[in-house]
Amino acid sequence: MRNNRAMAVVPHRIAVLAVDQVVGLDLGTPSQVFGTARTEDGTSLYRVDACTAGGLPVRSTAGFQVLPDHGLELVEAADTVVVPGIHNGSPLVDGTVDPAVAAALRAAHERGARIMSICTGAFVLAAAGLLDGRRATTHWAYADLFRRLHPHVELDPDVLFIDDGVLTSAGVAAGLDLCLHVIRTDHGSAVANWSARRCVVPPWRDGGQAQYIEHPVPRAAATGTAATREWARQRLHESVALRDLAAHARMSVRTFTRRFRSETGLSPAQWLLQQRTDHARLLLETTDLTVDQIARHTGFGTTATLRHHFHHRVGVSPTTYRRTFHHTR
Q1: 41-52 confidence digits (pLDDT tens)
Q2: Burial of 52 from C-beta contacts in 10 A (0-12 / 13-18 / 19+)
Q3: b/e code 108-137 from CB counts within 10 Å (16+ = b)
Q4: Residue 229 Cα distances to 160, 208, 214, 244, 306, angstroms
Q5: What is the mean pLDDT of each successive set of 10 residues along the chain, which is 329 residues long?
Q6: Residue 318 in 3-state DSSP?
Q7: In which region does residue 220 sit, left (phi positive, over 0), alpha (psi from -120 to 50) or beta (all else)?
Q8: Residue 179 · residue 34 · CB < 8 Å
Q9: pLDDT tens across 231-277, in order?
Q10: pLDDT score of 3
Q11: Strand 58-59 vs strand 65-66: parallel, antiparallel, or unpaired?
């Protein structure tokens, strides 16, 4: 919500900047996700277009070429610039990038455009000098290479995405998470949840969630924790302890904790905080409940506890968040 141009301009213009050896899935992710974000009357909130240096074709890693409609002039006019991942080329070989691309990215950042990368697109941003001194992430498999090429970047390869002035994400599905995070930041949980539903993906995975999940495909209901997670979601207003979760799953606390983390990438306590905070966001947007009532409805208990955790995870107070997003109800 800081320096948020998306709230003032509809549609917010997004430039997807492709370089040679672009990953096909990453290239299509912004258009797919942002294209589903709409107002209640059906107005598109974002316009997404692709571009390359000189408007020239670039090769993808999926056996096809990308023939864009725009050159770098699109970056000059965009409110947000997204750089998809790559699987080869100079950013991954020697840490350099086309000078015209680097200059366009730096100019966009200097004038206040939001800059994002998906997966190894972070190598392009780093080569342009936009990540020095910042926290950033990329696909965990490229972490050692990234550190060798860009030692001045504070790389964290263990998270899904990072929003540190410039936004970076891990690979594949984490690009979806980052795009939904941006929609939620721009227009609130209700719009982001609808976009997630249209894309048939989870509405919210916290950026700090682990990239590597031991069992990304849920276990069978008889042995996994999915049923217990749903049980807990229905009881966010209650004080649900770890032993209660383990008892519902019919496991020991130790076994439940290990299995829960292997399936979600989070501890049970972290996951509950994430669920409660997300529910609080929705209630702040869509109801007239007081902050004190929302604290009770979401299991935080007291207003002070809600404010502490909400500010830590969202970056603003509940009152400020409501003032920004309550119109979406």
Answers
A1: 889 999 999 999
A2: buried
A3: bbeeebbbbbbbbbbbbbbbbebbeebbbb
A4: 20, 19, 17, 11, 21
A5: 53 97 96 94 95 97 94 97 97 97 98 98 98 96 97 94 95 91 92 88 67 57 82 94 95 94 89 93 91 95 94 89 73
A6: helix
A7: beta
A8: yes
A9: 999 999 999 999 999 999 999 999 999 999 988 888 999 999 999 99
A10: 46
A11: antiparallel
The encoded tokens of residue 326 equal 């309550």
Residue owning tokens 């968040």: 321
Residue 83 exposure: Cα atoms within 13 Å on the Cβ side: 36
pLDDT for 329 equals 42
Q: Tokens in use for 286?
A: 């869509």
For Cα atoms 164, 174, 58, give the angle at the middle one, nearest 5 degrees: 95
Written as one string, the DSSP assignment of 53-116 is GGG--EEBTTS-EE--SB-THHHHH-SEEEE--BSSSHHHHTS---HHHHHHHHHHHHTT-EEE
Both structure tokens of 83: 């750089």
Q: Which two tokens stand for residue 162?
A: 């990072």
Inter-residue contact 275 to 235 (CB < 8 Å): no
